[in-house]
């Protein structure tokens, strides 16, 4: 077994990289960073036009019938460049769920529009008082004839202020156990009674707290059966839990090597000549190798019809915690100058070290905290009791 991409995958990767090099200019990158919003309509439509939005989907739906390795190559390149694709990713995730279990009308209305870049979908899972316990959702959806009336709030609804829809988890049967009384809805965010308020993260990203006050939607916006929301949610969480963050380590390694090659020590020699500098950089490179192998194992399993139940969380928890370790280590190596702000002209590598350290801390929370991932590994991978 090996995880080295074949020549067709590498040719596909080269095309992706050329496209990203062309469109992700320094001006574009700075504008996205200063906005705090990891989405740009023109960039997203450019991915659609190039066939990079959902390459493994069938061609008749807007994909290219590519395999999982080629899609992984695309994901690695997008992450390596820190491309603004979060809303595109959540849109594609929800579209894949609707494609699997949605009604024919929902599929026709949403899936094709999503893959054309005409529709965007945010996620509405977490709540202010629930932490990582998504199943404890208190947002209520009460049936009123052919409609549902939704009241409550959601936390960390990233891009909820610009998306067209939110994939919302709501409690429909409060008398049932918490995992069995939930239902999933696709809520148009232009509905009366929806409000989004900005919340800024440590990394400078804008997320939102969203409020739902007597929001009325028709039953046609329900996804899956009533009170079967936890099973529907599981389809999306499995994809999230299998995420790997290794390419961000690769980005850090690239800038660390560039700094070490160009910066001079007190004796005038390049920093890279110092054994301590090489040792720290080598440690980052080793963590990157492990992170990429763990992620590619998940791709290999999916390509061979296996589900990476515990292997996905293993990839996620290792790669994010390795990113935190590596970011802090490189900041210590570079010294006080590493804390100069992102895009500060005098900062080493334009402030990437400072930003990556701030950014890394949130990755251990995104898509399920490290504690959640370890619980999945223990229970589903090792068979340990709850």
UniProtKB/TrEMBL annotation:
One of its GO terms (molecular function) is flavin adenine dinucleotide binding. Residues 9-118 form the Acyl-CoA dehydrogenase/oxidase N-terminal domain. It comes from the Bacteria. Keywords: FAD, Flavoprotein, Oxidoreductase. One of its GO terms (cellular component) is plasma membrane. Residues 122-209 form the Acyl-CoA oxidase/dehydrogenase middle domain. It holds the Pfam family Acyl-CoA_dh_M. The keyword Oxidoreductase applies. Gene3D superfamilies: Acyl-CoA dehydrogenase/oxidase, N-terminal domain, Butyryl-CoA Dehydrogenase, subunit A, domain 2, Butyryl-CoA Dehydrogenase, subunit A, domain 3. Its cofactor is FAD. InterPro entries: Acyl-CoA_Oxase/DH_mid-dom, Acyl-CoA_Oxase/DH_mid-dom_sf, AcylCo_DH-like_C, AcylCo_DH/oxidase_C, AcylCoA_DH/ox_N, AcylCoA_DH/ox_N_sf, AcylCoA_DH/oxidase_NM_dom_sf, Mycobact_Acyl-CoA_DH. This is Acyl-CoA dehydrogenase. It comes from Mycolicibacterium holsaticum.
